[in-house]
Amino acid sequence: METNPRTINDLLSQVETKFGGTKTIELIRELGAHPTELDSGAPPEIGPINKDKKIVVVGAGVAGLVLTYELAKRGANVELWEATSKIGGRNRSVRHGETIQETGHPDQICKLPKGGYLNAGPGRISHHHRAVLHYCKHFSLSLKPYQTLNRAALLHRYIPELDRDVIVRNRQVQFDGQGRIGEIAAKLGPWFDIDGPIPADLSEALRDWLHDNFDVHEGTDTEWNYCAKGRQGYSKARGGPNEQGEQEQPLTLEQILGLRLWYDDPRRSPDVIDEQLSMFELEGGNDGLVQALADQIQSALRTNRILKCLKRNEDGTVVLEGLDQEQGLIKTTADRVVLAMQPQAMVDMDLDLPVQTKQALEDLPARFAVKVAGWMNRRFWEDDLAIYGGISFTNMPNEQIWYPNNNFQDVNGGLLVMAYAALHHGEMLGKLPPNERCAAAVELAKRIHPQIEEELNQESLITIAWQNIPHIRSPWVAWTPDRYKRWFHQITEPMGSIAFAGDWCSHLPAWQEGAIRSAYSLLAWAGQ
Question: What is the pLDDT of residues 466-525, one digit of tens each?
């Protein structure tokens, strides 16, 4: 069916512009017609590979797997050493019957129902993490939506002085908050004065913006006020002809600021660029990515092989000494070595590295992250609160509650992550034995969701503290501004025949995308 050009022109002629062509051209001059193009996420072209050179990659996390896969695909002589029997590093999904081992604590056997799993490491994939999505597409891995942001989820504040809990919906803080800020802005500024800071031809647009985005209206007395219109939610639902509903009482500015309700979690706010929607997770567990990579490089993979010592030779080669579970002590020489592991995992290794490099590794502090989850026999967050996916935030040590983003209304229940705690709270919880850690997280989460008391399958409780996991010892490296300035460029450049790889060697620390981009940056060097 052909499109009638006249019809299209008629439609386009209905588009309104508030300004004339001259002003419009001035406003859009720096914008361009379309969003910025994104790269495909595919690895870079690197030219011919030197197939006579031997490459050893140490650490089968995301960076090590990607680097080995891309080099092996191009015909390189490459080996990938992994200290444990399990590939993936921090990309780990825990299933029924699997064991979690933490240094200094009893082992845990996962007793989640068969088919259930906990994404103990990466929980989500950002829509602009193009390299991760490239491999998901390349290996035909199925994605499903992950709702980082759910306006129906909760913001909780525990008030220790009163032993009281305050719980509101995310939407209340978002929309009442921006309404109160809009009200202040409208009242304080001489925005609509003839000689005010807003040009006359933009003042009407500002009025529309305050009205449409902030629900701020100008009264007959020219006084500006926030007038909630229901975006903050309803305490009594709307329904039939005689059920107009009742809006939630708008939060006051004093409540929002005094209770710090806006302060959900600035380190993982759903509005930071890496967590803005859309986000995804993999069907069947996020470890599907590392398993797909590992399946392609079985001949290069050496599991249960621990690097003990690394020495540089004058000719530029590197001698590696290791302990292999089957072969015992081993020794080999390589032309290129990539240490694809966390700095904290290298502490016990005898590494012949430049003095400044060793200083940098020692100066990068460990971080802390804990997850605690359990199976609920009833999805009460859906049945009772209409929360379908997303995250609730609290100022208590468990910090976050994650709701499942699939199998909605499943009568068999679902997995509830009752704690995802980092930094100081993650450190405190990580020091507790797993059973005590789980018990503490349950008690904290019950202050937000008392239904946990009846619905939790106690045997299903499972937890991980990444700082306690052997050969990992830290969930991520967070570059402070001073450490970044001092060490980053030095640590991320190859040192002759040796280089580091991992998310900590990128501008996306703690993300799989950073690990892959780090691997990409070493492809040409490793293949020389």
Answer: 999 999 999 999 899 999 999 999 999 999 999 999 999 999 999 999 999 999 999 999
Q: How far apart are the first and last CA of the chain?
A: 55
Instruction: Measure the CA–CA gap between 294 and 9, rounded to whole angstroms.
Output: 54
For 95-121+367-468, CATH gives 3.90.660.10
Instruction: Locate the domains of the chain by residue range.
Output: 54-88+288-363+480-526, 95-121+367-468, 170-269
List the structure tokens of 525. 């060097």
CATH fold for the domain made of 54-88+288-363+480-526: FAD/NAD(P)-binding domain (3.50.50)
Beta bridge partners of 146: 279
Strands, E, within 269-327: which ranges? 279-282, 301-302, 305-312, 318-324
Report d(CA 161, CA 156) in Å as an integer: 15
The alpha helices in 117-222, defined as continuous H runs, are: 130-138, 170-171, 177-188, 200-214
| 8-state DSSP, 299 | G
In 10 A of CB 36, how many CB atoms? 5
Fold (topology level) of 170-269: de novo design (two linked rop proteins) (1.20.1440)
Residue 392: is the preceding peptide bond cis (ω within 30°)? no
What per-residue confidence (pLDDT) applies to 266?
Answer: 47
3-state SS assignment for residue 403: strand
Distance CA 326, CA 286 (A): 30
The rounded distance, in Å, linking the Cα atoms of 466 and 474 is 6
Amino acid, res. 13: S
CB-based contact 134:125 (threshold 8 Å): no
Task: Classify strands 234-236 and 369-376 as parallel, antiparallel or unpaired.
Answer: unpaired
Q: What is the DSSP letter of 461?
A: -
| Whole-number Å distance between alpha carbons of 391 and 154 | 8
pLDDT per position as a tens digit, 62-108: 999 999 999 999 999 999 999 999 999 999 999 999 999 999 999 99
